[in-house]
Design a protein that fits this description.
CATH class: Alpha Beta
Subcellular location: Cell inner membrane
Strand order of the largest sheet: 6-7-8-3-9-10
Helix content: 25-40%
Protein name: Phosphonate transport system ATP-binding protein
Keywords: ATP-binding, Cell membrane, Membrane, Nucleotide-binding, Translocase, Transport
CATH topology: Rossmann fold
Bound molecules: adenosine-5'-diphosphate, magnesium ion
Organism: Halomonas ventosae
Distance between the termini: 34 Å
CATH superfamily: P-loop containing nucleotide triphosphate hydrolases
Order of helices and strands: EEEHEEHEHHHEHEHEEH
Number of strands: 10
Structural class: alpha/beta
Strand content: 15-25%
InterPro entries: AAA+_ATPase (IPR003593), ABC_transporter-like_ATP-bd (IPR003439), ABC_transporter-like_CS (IPR017871), ABC_transpr_PhnC (IPR012693), MetN_ABC_transporter-like (IPR050086), P-loop_NTPase (IPR027417)
Number of domains: 1
Length: about 260
Amino acid sequence: MTAISVERLDKSFGNHAALRDIGFEIAKGEMVTLIGPSGSGKSTLLRLFIGLTAADRQSHSHVRVLARDVQRQGRLVGARREQRRRTGYIFQQFNLVSRLSVMTNVLIGHLGAMPRWRALAGRFTRREYDAARRALARVGIEDLAEQRANTLSGGQMQRVAIARALVQDAEVILADEPISSLDPRSAREVMEILERINREDGRTVVVTLHQVDVARRYCRRAIALKKGRLYYDGPISGLTDTRLQVLYEDAGLDEL
Ligand code: ADP
Ligand code: MG
């Protein structure tokens, strides 16, 4: 069963080719790292998966997520919303509503899309609260439910974002540099949670990472991009030091 399939994907910004002729498939239940120097196209690729950006019009690109062609979704709001619900998106700059409580931020996952926050009060059922509480327990922060999101540490915020994806019951979790602004310990905890929801629930996880050692510890497969092209796709063990050197040859040393 395929979770994500990409064929002949081209994406340009003006006359700058951000992605060129990308193709791969990710099976349901895989945990894959997307790796490469900054500017190689990782975020653009993840954004394509949730329809936040579109492939080039004149191309023969296909991007399918959970069997839906995300480039040709049509205008049916319900269908789009359902597709968004099935795909959880977690990024570096924690996508929480800072003045709302942790609980409310997680409950938002039930809505499948970001609502106008004013309309939130009294909107959720007992069952939805229970599900949110279970999700918070799963990521280890049930005691923070009533705190405002902006009082949390970076690692705690990422856990809230993951709890929201759990409440959404997202089948695919896309995480764009979820640990890049975290201290090593929080980073490890967030990676362990992602690894656990992959292993225990069979959710597909695609995570962009800068740290190759972290990728090696948590992901079996790596997809590497270099200047918008597919540079490597295979077992992470195949991403040898020699290959990594070539992958990062034009990047600053601090990126490795
Ligand atoms: P990465 O996530 O690997 O660092 P990105 O996907 O953010 O790379 O960017 C890939 C390339 O596309 C870069 O050259 C970047 O400058 C360019 N790019 C990304 N988003 C935009 C945008 N909205 N407008 C113009 N150029 C963009
Ligand atoms: Mg990026």
